[in-house]
């Protein structure tokens, strides 16, 4: 999704809430944008240079927080959009952070493990002046994981002393949190179950489709299937598949993990499908859990699901969103639906600061409590002000970030 699209969502909300030009200006502008050169020596001795970014959108409510994405399409515009979404996301769930995002314009599949480590360490050196446990705390996002967080923590600690709280999403052996890997998908599955119930659809037997069986999509699919829902369509960069009887979800996840292309394509016992057929699937719920901007106006017109739960950040363009809302499709927006990840990151950071660790049950219970409260709050605002869920979530976030910004002063 582009920054312009994010500004459109935000602008619709600030006008609706009449926050005024002064606050609007502050909320629309990122507070710091850092662009760095990430130069490494390749295994063959040649030099490779990549562009890296860390963009801090708003820090009024606490330290900046947000993931790091390694992808060949990462650019300043996209990172700006994603940083802004983090400010709203942390406010919707009421955790004490601002919003940030970072990334490197690189396809990690073209790097050897050694090159990936060097890219990560070099990037950490380049951004270490603007991050820190009380300043800005990165985390995993597209194509980044616990190993990458471990390298960042190690590299940062070399010049700042042992600092586990500088990143979240770390492996358990390095002060990570129980439940963090599954947390984003768990939040998506919880929101999907609650929204299905609101629509009067029993989760047991509900039919759903997932785009992207990466960390978020696979956990969402697994947890929904455990609740009795049926995954009947799936797809990703490698292709689309369907099975009207429902996939064996753990087997499908294993297939993706072992596939050289990390794709659902070719899963035994499935029928080949297409991007178009996937979005037009006859399902109760559609879960876009891959990249941004996939549901545009054309795609939106073909959607038959009654519910969309946004596991990915920014999967729906503003025109598509208006189209869907006009047809009474319920959309649980990214800033609520995928907030489980950053909420569990918050738990990890709290545990790091307290040097006291919680059980997986404690983590999952606290996660569900926070997400349920946020889901109910968004639902109440939507009902009271006759708004769709995205606008209601933005309204809550803009109110909270706006108030904090005013209290702190310009
Ligand atoms: N990358 C995730 C997101 O977009 C998690 C961010 C975090 O944990 O800081 O919400």
Structural overview:
There is one protein chain. By secondary structure, this protein is α/β, with parallel strands linked by helices. The protein has two domains: 162 residues, Rossmann fold (3-Layer(aba) Sandwich), CATH 3.40.50; 156 residues, NAD(P)-binding Rossmann-like Domain (Rossmann fold), CATH 3.40.50.720. It contains 15 helices and twelve strands. Strands 9-8-7-6-10-11-12 form a seven-stranded mixed β-sheet, sandwiched between helices. Strands 1-2-4-3-5 form a five-stranded mixed β-sheet. The model has no long low-confidence stretch (mean pLDDT 97). The structure holds glutamic acid (GLU). The site of glutamic acid (GLU) has 12 residues, from strand 3 and helix 13.
Entry summary:
This protein is α/β, with parallel strands linked by helices and 410 residues long.
* Small-molecule components bound: glutamic acid
Give the tally of β-strands.
12
Number of domains: 2
Most strands sheet = 7 strands, mixed
- What name is given to the CATH topology of the largest domain? Rossmann fold
**CATH top level assignment of the largest domain:** Alpha Beta
Gyration radius, rounded: 20 Å
- Percent in strands: 15-25%
List the uncertain runs: none
Let me know the CATH homologous superfamily of the largest domain.
Leucine Dehydrogenase, chain A, domain 1
CATH architecture label name of the largest domain: 3-Layer(aba) Sandwich
């Amino acid at each position: 999704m582009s920054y312009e699209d994010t500004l459109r969502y935000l602008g619709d909300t600030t006008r609706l809430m009449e926050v005024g030009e002064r606050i609007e200006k502050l909320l629309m502008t990122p507070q710091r944008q850092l662009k760095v050169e990430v130069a490494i020596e390749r295994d063959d001795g040649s030099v490779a240079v990549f562009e890296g970014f860390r963009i801090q959108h708003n820090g009024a409510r606490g330290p900046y927080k947000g993931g790091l994405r390694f992808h060949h399409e990462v650019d300043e515009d996209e990172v700006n959009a994603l940083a802004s979404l983090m400010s709203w996301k942390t406010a919707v769930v009421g955790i004490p952070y601002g919003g940030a995002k970072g990334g490197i314009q690189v396809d990690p599949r073209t790097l050897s493990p050694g090159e990936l480590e060097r890219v990560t360490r070099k990037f950490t050196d380049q951004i270490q002046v603007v991050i820190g446990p009380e300043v800005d705390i990165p985390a995993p996002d597209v194509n980044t994981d616990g190993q990458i967080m471990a390298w960042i923590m190690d590299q940062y600690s070399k010049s700042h002393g042992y600092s586990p709280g500088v990143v979240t999403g770390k492996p358990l052996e390095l002060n990570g949190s129980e439940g963090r890997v599954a947390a984003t998908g768990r939040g998506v599955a919880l929101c999907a179950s609650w929204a299905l119930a609101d629509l009067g659809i029993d989760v047991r037997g509900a039919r759903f489709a997932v785009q992207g069986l990466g960390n978020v999509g696979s956990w969402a699919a697994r947890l929904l299937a455990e609740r009795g829902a049926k995954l009947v369509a799936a797809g990703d960069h490698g292709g689309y598949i369907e099975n009207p009887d429902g996939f064996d979800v753990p087997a499908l996840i294993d297939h993706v993990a072992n596939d050289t292309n990390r794709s659902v394509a070719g899963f035994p016992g499935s029928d080949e499908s297409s991007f178009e057929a996937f979005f037009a699937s006859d399902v109760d719920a559609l879960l876009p859990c891959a990249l941004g901007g996939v549901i545009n106006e054309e795609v939106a017109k073909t959607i038959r699901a009654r519910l969309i739960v946004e596991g990915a950040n920014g999967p729906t363009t503003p025109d598509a969103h208006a189209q869907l809302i006009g047809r009474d499709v319920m959309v649980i927006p990214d800033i609520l639906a995928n907030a489980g990840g950053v909420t569990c990151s918050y738990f990890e950071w709290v545990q790091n600061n307290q040097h006291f660790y919680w059980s997986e049950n404690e983590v999952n219970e606290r996660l569900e409590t926070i997400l349920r409260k946020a889901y109910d709050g968004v639902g109440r605002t939507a009902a009271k002000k006759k708004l769709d869920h995205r606008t209601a979530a933005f309204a809550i976030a803009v109110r909270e970030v706006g108030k904090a910004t005013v209290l702190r002063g310009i």
